[in-house]
Design brief:
- Acetylation of prosthetic group (2-(5''-phosphoribosyl)-3'-dephosphocoenzyme-A) of the gamma subunit of citrate lyase.
- It catalyses: holo-[citrate lyase ACP] + acetate + ATP = acetyl-[citrate lyase ACP] + AMP + diphosphate.
- GO terms for molecular function: [citrate (pro-3S)-lyase] ligase activity; ATP binding; lyase activity.
- The structure is a single chain.
- This protein is α/β, with parallel strands linked by helices and about 325 residues long.
- The protein folds into 2 domains: about 1-125, Gcn5-related N-acetyltransferase (GNAT) (Aminopeptidase); about 130-330, Rossmann fold.
- The protein contains 11 helices and 14 strands.
- The protein has helices at about 10-25, 70-85, 100-105, 125-135, 155-165, 185-195, 230-245, 265-275, 300-305, 310-315, 320-330, and strands spanning about 1-5, 35-40, 45-50, 55-60, 90-95, 110, 115-120, 145-150, 170-175, 200-205, 250-260, 280-285, 290, 295.
- The protein has a 7-stranded mixed β-sheet. It has a 5-stranded parallel β-sheet with strand order 10-9-8-11-12, with helices on both faces. A two-stranded antiparallel sheet has the order 13-14.
- Strand 13 (about 290) and strand 14 (about 295) form a beta hairpin.
- Helix 7 (about 230-245) crosses helix 8 (about 265-275).
- It is globular, with a radius of gyration of 22 Å.
Length: about 325
């Protein structure tokens, strides 16, 4: 037997073997991987595991070799790769049937659905994240939340926040930490904080890896390229994590979203949240703010940035966002 790195994009025959092995293990082949290893018996792929950033995924063993202890060298190889990259904290997806095995290897379960279990290993962990939320937790009980990317923060985002803030005691805004956007996570966080400074009952947090991230919901960032079946499984996991582990911590009773006429994946996410949240949390959809009959969107603003149409941008974003765009594009 030999363990080695495999290059899925360079070998169609090997990629087919890899896909077949995953399907035989009742796993969906996931295109979002950037490092993959395999164990081979001569030319036959009998075990595999992949990384996407600090996420371990697509881990499978041929049924004929289930008792050959192949998972240990696969995990060891993936962990060594993470350490080479300076990663001390990792996440793992697995099936409910194999969750206990990974927990015995030091992974901690964060949340599970009928289809998938989400675990982590290393520090800082989910308990550390909850502790960080507690530092700015308000004593109020009728609270709501919004999760947003704000890439960049627009008047549409501000309208959604303002409307939601009128209807609750405290509104918690969670800004995505994932760095998959034109504006960095720190810039987006600062723009939201600056944009809501005048609203006394709004508190702004980072999501870290625990909401709409590469760890919980990678398909969100693929938008129209995402496979909807995969996106639905991930959306359910993300929604359940929020409902069961984050919302009770902050007494959140409602989550606000803008109506979604543009992205099929985001529309699917909204629908899944509606189903998962009830009855504990109400999902409230607010019609998007329009200007001259067109919905204000961050997508539109990014397009105008590309076109350097700063005059048009000025009417779509708060002053602080406009100033950041000008500074960013000098």
């Amino acid at each position: 037997m030999e363990l080695k790195r495999i290059w899925l994009q360079n070998d169609k025959k090997l990629k087919l073997q890899w896909q077949t092995l995953l399907i035989d293990n009742e796993l969906t082949p996931d295109s979002q991987v950037d490092y993959t290893v395999g164990i081979f018996e001569q030319e036959k792929l009998i075990g595999t595991g992949s990384l996407y950033g600090n996420i371990l995924k697509c881990i499978a063993i041929d049924w004929s070799y289930q008792n050959a202890n192949l998972l240990t060298p696969i995990l060891q190889s993936l962990r060594e790769k993470l350490l080479e990259s300076g990663e001390t904290h990792s996440f793992l997806y697995t099936k409910p049937a194999t969750s206990e095995f990974f927990e015995n290897l030091g992974f901690s379960k964060i949340i599970a659905t009928e289809e998938i279990v989400f675990l982590e290993q290393g520090l800082p962990d989910f308990n550390d994240y909850l502790t960080s939320l507690k530092r700015n937790k308000q004593a109020t009980k009728n609270n709501a939340s919004i999760v947003m990317n704000a890439n960049p923060f627009t008047n549409g985002h501000l309208y959604l926040i303002t409307e939601a803030a009128k209807k609750c005691d405290t509104l918690y805004i969670f800004v995505l930490s994932e760095n998959r956007s034109l504006f960095s996570n720190q810039t987006r966080l600062n723009l939201v904080r600056e944009g809501v400074r005048h609203l006394d009952n709004v508190v702004v947090f980072e999501t870290k890896e625990y909401m709409v991230s590469d760890a919980t919901f990678p398909a969100y960032f693929l938008k129209d390229q995402a496979e909807l079946a995969v996106a639905k499984v991930q959306a359910k996991l993300d929604a359940r994590l929020f409902k069961e582990n984050i919302a009770p911590w902050l007494s959140i009773k409602a989550r606000y979203v803008g109506e979604e006429p543009f992205s099929e994946v985001t529309a699917l996410y909204n629908q899944v949240m509606k189903e998962v949240f009830l009855p504990e949390i109400t999902l409230v959809e607010i019609p998007r703010k329009e200007l001259f009959g067109e919905a204000i969107s961050a997508t539109k603003v990014r397009k105008l940035i590309q076109e350097k149409d700063y005059r048009a941008i000025q009417s779509l974003v708060p002053k602080s966002t406009y100033e950041e765009i000008i500074k960013h594009n000098k």
